[in-house]
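U., I forgot to send this yesterday:
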Amino acid sequence: MAIKHLFAPCTLMVLLTGCANDYYQAQYPAPVYGGQSPINTQLPPPVAKPLPDESTVVTKPLKEFKPRSVPMEIPDRVIQEPEPEPVPEEKVEELPPLVEDAPAPEPQVTQEPEADTSFTPLESNAHLSAPVSALVLAAKQNTDSGNPEAAGAAIERAIRIEPRNATLYYKLAVARLNQSQPRLAEDLAKKAALLASNDRELKKHSWLLIAKARELLSNPEGAKLARKKAGSFD
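Result:
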C-alpha cells in the first residue's frame, strides 16, 4: 500500500514536467535581467506560406508608358519631279475600203409576150331561123340579167330545133362557162368547131373558148395549145 502511495505522486510529477517542456518550447522565454541566460533560446519553426491557387490570377501594375518623340527633318521645300512629256500618238494610215467583187450580172431571159387571155364571146346570129333567133335573143337577155341557167335552157330548146347548128353549140358553151362548168363548156366548144366547117371565125372563137376553159381547169399547157390552134384561123 505504501508503494502505491509513493508511485502516484511520481507519475504526476513526470506528467507535469512533460507539459512544462511543451509550453516552454512553444513560447518565447521571458527576458531575465541580472546576467542570467534564458532557459530556452530555440526559435519556433517557421510557418509555411500557403501555395497560390492555380485559379487565382495575379496581376501586376504596368509600368507607366512615356511616349518618346523622334525628331524628324523637314526639308525646306518639296522637290517636285518633272512631269513626263506626252508621247505623240502615232497616226495610223487608213486603208482604202476593200472593193468587193461586183456580182456578175444575171443573164437576162427574154420572155415571150404572153398571149391575151381575155375572152370575149362571139355575138353572131347568122344562119338562124326566126324561132331559133327568138330563143337566142331570150338567152341573151337572161345572161345580161344575171340568169345563166335560164339562158342555157333557152339555147337547149333552140338546139332541139336545129341540132346541127354550130352557132347554137358555141352559145351553149358560153352559157356553161358562165355557170362555172368549164369541162362541159370545152366539150361543147369542140363540137362547135367541128360543125363550123368553113366558118373560120367561128372555129377561132371556139378554140379561144376552149383555151379559157382549160385555164379554169388549171391546164396552162393545154390552154397554150388551144390559143395556138385559134391563131391558125387568122
